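Duplicate of #3305? Posting structure anyway:
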Protein backbone atom coordinates (compact mmCIF):
# COMPACT_ATOMS: atom_id res chain seq x y z
CA UNK A 1 0.00 0.00 0.00
CA UNK A 2 1.39 3.37 -1.02
CA UNK A 3 0.38 6.98 -0.54
CA UNK A 4 2.05 9.59 -2.77
CA UNK A 5 4.39 6.81 -3.93
CA UNK A 6 5.65 6.21 -0.37
CA UNK A 7 5.06 2.90 1.41
CA UNK A 8 3.14 2.87 4.68
CA UNK A 9 6.25 1.59 6.46
CA UNK A 10 8.19 4.63 5.30
CA UNK A 11 5.29 6.86 6.47
CA UNK A 12 5.74 5.38 9.97
CA UNK A 13 9.38 6.52 9.81
CA UNK A 14 8.36 10.01 8.69
CA UNK A 15 5.76 10.21 11.47
CA UNK A 16 8.38 9.13 14.03
CA UNK A 17 10.81 11.73 12.70
CA UNK A 18 8.19 14.49 12.81
CA UNK A 19 7.18 13.54 16.36
CA UNK A 20 10.77 13.66 17.62
CA UNK A 21 11.34 17.01 15.89
CA UNK A 22 8.07 18.35 17.33
CA UNK A 23 9.16 17.34 20.82
CA UNK A 24 12.00 19.87 20.70
CA UNK A 25 9.51 22.70 20.24
CA UNK A 26 8.04 22.05 23.70
CA UNK A 27 8.78 24.66 26.35
CA UNK A 28 8.22 22.19 29.18
CA UNK A 29 10.87 19.50 29.64
CA UNK A 30 8.17 17.10 30.83
CA UNK A 31 6.13 17.62 27.64
CA UNK A 32 9.32 17.29 25.59
CA UNK A 33 10.09 13.92 27.18
CA UNK A 34 6.51 12.64 26.73
CA UNK A 35 6.30 13.63 23.05
CA UNK A 36 9.85 12.40 22.45
CA UNK A 37 8.92 9.05 24.00
CA UNK A 38 6.03 8.75 21.56
CA UNK A 39 8.47 9.39 18.72
CA UNK A 40 10.86 6.80 20.14
CA UNK A 41 8.10 4.20 20.27
CA UNK A 42 7.20 4.97 16.67
CA UNK A 43 10.87 4.58 15.70
CA UNK A 44 11.04 1.22 17.52
CA UNK A 45 7.94 0.09 15.62
CA UNK A 46 9.52 1.35 12.38
CA UNK A 47 12.76 -0.48 13.19
CA UNK A 48 10.86 -3.76 13.44
CA UNK A 49 8.93 -3.08 10.22
CA UNK A 50 12.08 -2.15 8.31
CA UNK A 51 13.47 -5.14 6.42
CA UNK A 52 15.91 -6.38 7.42
CA UNK A 53 15.09 -5.36 11.01
CA UNK A 54 17.15 -2.31 11.94
CA UNK A 55 18.78 -3.11 15.27
CA UNK A 56 20.56 0.28 15.56
CA UNK A 57 17.23 2.15 15.26
CA UNK A 58 15.58 -0.15 17.79
CA UNK A 59 18.44 -0.10 20.33
CA UNK A 60 18.96 3.67 20.14
CA UNK A 61 15.30 4.50 20.57
CA UNK A 62 14.67 1.97 23.36
CA UNK A 63 17.63 3.55 25.17
CA UNK A 64 16.35 7.11 24.66
CA UNK A 65 12.86 6.00 25.72
CA UNK A 66 14.30 4.47 28.90
CA UNK A 67 16.31 7.60 29.74
CA UNK A 68 13.24 9.80 29.21
CA UNK A 69 11.10 7.47 31.33
CA UNK A 70 13.70 7.46 34.11
CA UNK A 71 13.71 11.25 34.32
CA UNK A 72 9.91 11.47 34.06
CA UNK A 73 9.51 9.04 36.96
CA UNK A 74 12.27 10.79 38.94
CA UNK A 75 10.46 14.12 38.45
CA UNK A 76 7.20 12.69 39.87
CA UNK A 77 8.80 11.59 43.14
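Output from current build:
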Amino acid sequence: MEFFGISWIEWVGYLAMATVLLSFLMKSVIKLRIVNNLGCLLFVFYGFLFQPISKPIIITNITIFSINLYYLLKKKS
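Confirmed duplicate; merging threads. DSSP finds three helices and two strands in the chain. The first helix runs from residue 8 to 23.
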